[in-house]
Amino acid sequence: MWRLHRYYLRELLVNASITFLVLFAIVVISLVARGVQRAQGGELYDAAVITLFWSLDAFPHLLPISFLLATVLTFTRANQDREITALRSAGISPRVPMMAAVLIGILLSIFGSLTLHYVLPEIHFRKYRVIVEVVRNVIMNTGLGATDDRVSIPGTDIALTYGRREDSGRDEDFVLRDCWLYLPDDRGKEIGSLSPLVHVDKVWIPRTKEGDTSLRVVLEGTTDPLTGVGFERHEHYFPLRAISEGTRRDERDDDMVSSQLLAEVLRGQHEQPMGARYTLNRRTCFAILPLLLGPLGYCLALAARNRGRALALVLSLLPLLVFYVGDVLGGKMLRVTDEPLSGWLPAVLLVVLGTPFCWWELRK
After folding, report:
1. Residue 5 to residues 2, 92, 114, Cα–Cα distance (Å)
2. Could you give the count of Cα atoms lying within 13 Å of 17 in the half-sphere of its Cβ?
3. Angle, in degrees to the nearest 10, between helices 59-80 and 95-114
4. Please, are residues 177 and 164 in contact by the beta-carbon 8 Å criterion?
5. Which of 7, 78, 238, 330 pairs as cysteine with 215 (C-beta 3.0–4.6 A)?
6. Is 31 helix (H, G, I), strand (E, B) or coil?
7. Residue 350 and residue 209: Cα distance in Å, rounded?
């Protein structure tokens, strides 16, 4: 009997792996444009990491879908080759080959549970902060990455216009020439200027790096237009936190691992405890989805019989439709009833609608 299980286990694992890789590659390709857009001010490596993180966020959906498709394809092929008929003729129950799908479904559910509760929340959090978000936000908020001739320091009254932007020969620096710098009275007095508007031959702004706490601005060739007096080189520092966090994204339930989320609920520190409990239930519901889809996929393959794999694949959309409709309805029920157990509604619908169907097919 173990040889029979090993035969179907091997085929199922191969089909599920290939299906998952194909679906994951499609998701990655579809998110490349978003990754490049969010990586403005960063490098190609940053765009690749962002794209990967956004793609991994689809893992809870890709894993059960690929397993369901692999199960349907594997046992539809076995049914067409009369393997299931031969097993029944030998007195072996059709439940025996189904155990391969159940075993893999259990393993995927365990793996998916660990991933959904502890790994994906961190990925969901990191996908918004991949580039060292401080660096990207500084570039975007100050206008250093824009095409116009204006640079501003958020949180201050300082503004700068420049005649041209010069290639410093080092990718990490911004060098601006022929600049007019507006400084409030206190800033102007620091460099000895009587006028709040000064001319600067060269402004050098080193790119911020991870670990930096301030933005450094170097002024060279500063001249007061009222007196014509020139000044020596000056360096100014501005706190990065005030500049970069103007568009900061606060932490949400999707960004927290389940243990942290549950701890906040039990301690009474969470602002919406029912919503947090719903999130925990929904994660667990998605985690056990492969276990539920394994027997359903097997029975759908039996129901297709000699009608071909195309029909079997179409039939496999039915449990997915039931599950995702239940997921949408569960979210609406939470808003109406404030009941966190509504996160289990998709699994309940699959069990209620799928159990009679599986019982009927296995009894034939």
Report:
1. 5, 13, 26
2. 6
3. 170
4. yes
5. 238
6. coil
7. 50
